[in-house]
Design brief:
Blueprint lengths: L6 E2 L6 E2 L15 E10 L2 E11 L4 E5 L6 H8 L7 E6 L2 E2 L5 H9 L1 E4 L11 H12 L5 H14 L15 H13 L5 E5 L7 H18 L2 E5 L3 H7 L2 E6 L2 E6 L1 H5 L4 H4 L7 H9 L2
Parallel strand pairs: 5-10, 5-11, 8-9, 9-10
Antiparallel strand pairs: 1-2, 3-4, 3-6, 6-7, 11-12
Helix pairs in contact: 3-5, 4-5, 6-7, 7-10
């Protein structure tokens, strides 16, 4: 990885010198490539020369303690924040080279699930899911739109809630509806910002399993920002850990859990429940 600071290798636990990030050797271009991403607010540098990639069909989990730059990083990917320097390429498009229309066209191919699901309170579940179709699929027939709405609600197990208002739903149901609405435009890339925040353990596990189910069904590539280790254990194909604005470690859940670095292990020293979660999903 291209990093200015020394990092800890999760497989050797030795400080290693900065190196150029090695992309997949199979010749397949990653769907997301970030190089040298830096972002400051005033004199406070939140991200320092972050470089990473996401392979097609991969779930990359980004961990980090509060203030490590996780949320700022994901906002830079969708241009809710603008980096000070560095490059971001998504689906082969360099974000800095895109004009306004091209940026909007790319955003349709990227799903972003906010922490609070961002549903419209005055709209029913059906109307919430129909809204992005009305905005971006104007030529789609009403019959096909209705079929797509029902398919997405079936994916999240909430077809019976189609005429409910969000205020009548539980927190877990709101998250599911938010995911259904995000997936209705059939994005190639999903960005999840703390998808299990505020949920009880059982519901958080169900949402995590749903993320994996949608990944496999629609061949989605995802970045999942989380501090929930059960979510990480269920969803992650690969994990990176941010510390003080840099990529401090990278590896599989098992590699990082067995690291000799005490700070890395501190993320995993909480419960044996994660082993059950991993075994259940084959991660």
């Amino acid at each position: 990885m291209d990093q200015t600071n020394n990092t800890i290798s999760p497989t050797t636990d030795r400080a290693v010198q900065p190196q150029v990030e090695k992309l997949p050797a199979n010749g397949q271009q990653p769907v997301i490539v970030v190089r040298g991403l830096t972002k400051s607010f005033g004199e406070h540098e939140v991200l320092h020369s972050i470089s990473l990639h996401v392979k097609k069909g991969e779930n990359l989990v980004v961990l980090g303690k509060s203030g490590s730059g996780k949320s700022v990083f994901i906002k830079c990917l969708v241009r809710l924040e603008w980096p000070d320097c560095g490059t971001i390429s998504i689906l082969g498009k360099d974000l800095d080279s895109l004009n306004y229309q091209e940026t909007n066209d790319l955003r349709i191919r990227i799903g972003f699930l906010f922490q609070n699901a961002a549903l419209y309170d005055s709209m029913t579940v059906r109307e919430n899911l129909a809204f992005p179709l009305r905005q971006h699929k104007k030529r789609m027939s009403a019959k096909k739109k209705e079929a797509l709405i029902l398919e997405m609600l079936d994916n999240v197990g909430l077809v019976d809630s189609i005429d409910q208002l969000p205020s009548k739903l539980s927190g877990g149901q709101v998250k599911r509806i938010g995911l259904a609405r995000t997936l209705i435009l059939q994005p190639e890339v999903m960005l999840y910002d703390e998808p299990t925040t505020g949920l009880d353990t059982i519901t958080a596990k169900e949402i995590s399993e749903l993320i994996v189910k949608m990944q496999k069904k629609y061949h989605i590539s995802s970045i999942i920002i989380t501090h929930d280790m059960i979510c990480a254990g269920i969803t992650a194909d690969r994990i990176i850990i941010l510390r003080d604005g840099i990529v401090y470690a990278e590896g599989s859940y098992a590699q990082l859990e067995n690291s000799q670095d005490e700070w890395i292990r501190s993320f995993f020293d909480f419960s044996d429940n994660i082993n059950t979660a991993q075994n259940a999903t084959g991660k």
